[in-house]
Amino acid sequence: MAGIYLHIPFCKQACHYCNFHFSTSLRQKGAMVEAIMRELELQKDYLQGAPLSSIYFGGGTPSLLDAGELEQIFSKIYQLHSVQADAEITLEANPDDLSLEKLQSLRNSPVNRLSIGIQSFAEEDLRYMNRAHNAQEARACIENALSVGFENLTLDLIYGAPTTSHEQWAKNLDTIFQYPIPHLSAYCLTVEPKTALDHFVRQGKASPIDEEHANAQFLYLMEATRAQGYEHYEISNFAKPGRYARHNSSYWLGEPYLGIGPSAHSFNGQTRQWNVANNAQYLKILNEGDLTQLSNTGLFELEALSPATRYNEYVMTGLRTIWGCDLQKIAPVFQSYFLENVQPFIDKGQVLVQNHQYRLSASGKFMADYIAAQLFFIENN
């Protein structure tokens, strides 16, 4: 199985915390769609004919695409690839884009799953994050999506913001629990370099993230979702049984995927490549470049993954999931290294072991990144 990720690099406005690649100018949207279809054609053999089990429109804000633009892209994908009849086809969307008319249009497209960036149901939080929608739109888009037949929904929330009290965080979750939502993603607010939030914190115009405040909300998140029957199958992801996100799970399980669009990444098991994160350069290369030898165009950079890099990536992704790290899937040359370095975390009860499977305990999930970093194999240059 394989997947395709399409990066749509446009947003109406910049959220203060976001460090993804996007532009707030929509002037080149039509040209970008044409370039994306051209790249799909050029990269048609990357997945070596593997059938697609997932297609994911990310960004940016893919819900800014109109029906005609989506139809063009889908037509090209179905022309070039074998798409499974039950493929998961996800479109990320912001609440302010999801009018009833827009949702009805999407229902008539191949899209069968929506990932909606709610982030919060509180006006104060939404203003702090500089979101384009308000609390009323956050609720309305869920109700409208369900009313037109989109039952396969995943909602994004953000916790740990200085404006998000524990009471408000509980309200955010309770609001979601009122609806039949099969999947929830919840992310801790982080201050990423070169974002507006980073600037505000350094200027003293915004409070830094309080780790204890965020940890308390993560703990409540784990308890509340478990009580509602959600499975905590990845650090930031919660699903009702059998409703795991197929596309994102493919990343964590090391399955191949093709990334299309500016800044998109691709992975085939042996190499990883990432496209230029610049809209103007991406368009120029695909419109004017000599495309006979893609690797020489500057469209992407490519890294051949060493055994140590593959080991590190497996540890980093596997440890964050319900599947954990399987010792038998670690190359023999790294097994003793892994066992030696994971033992202190087993002794502290932060990593649990069963049948060669190493998983984070509830307490270990608070330290997922740190634990993974301690297990990395550092190559000598």
How would you describe this structure to a colleague?
The two termini are 35 Å apart. A 9-stranded mixed sheet has the order 7-8-6-5-4-3-2-1-9, with helices on both faces. It has a 3-stranded antiparallel sheet with strand order 10-11-12, with no helix packed on it. Strands 13-15-14 form a 3-stranded antiparallel sheet. Helix 1 packs across helix 10. The mean pLDDT is 95. A hairpin with a 3-residue loop joins strand 10 and strand 11. It is globular and about 55 Å long. The chain is α/β, with parallel strands linked by helices and 381 residues long. It is built from 13 helices and 15 strands.
Task: Give the total of beta strands.
Answer: 15
Helix fraction?
A: 25-40%
Oligomer: single chain
- Average pLDDT confidence is 95
The number of helical segments is 13
Uncertain stretches of 5 or more adjacent residues: none
Shape: globular
H and E order: EHEHEHEHHEHEHHEEHEEEHEHEHEEH
Distance between the termini: 35 Å
Largest sheet: 9 strands, mixed
Q: What is the rounded Rg?
A: 21 Å
Strand percentage: 15-25%
Topology:
Elements: E1 2-8, H1 29-42, E2 52-59, H2 67-80, E3 83-93, H3 100-107, E4 113-119, H4 123-129, H5 135-147, E5 153-159, H6 166-177, E6 183-188, H7 196-202, H8 211-227, E7 231-234, E8 237-239, H9 246-252, E9 257-260, E10 265-267, E11 271-275, H10 279-288, E12 300-304, H11 307-318, E13 325-326, H12 332-347, E14 351-354, E15 357-360, H13 368-375
Helix pairs in contact: 1-2, 1-10, 6-8
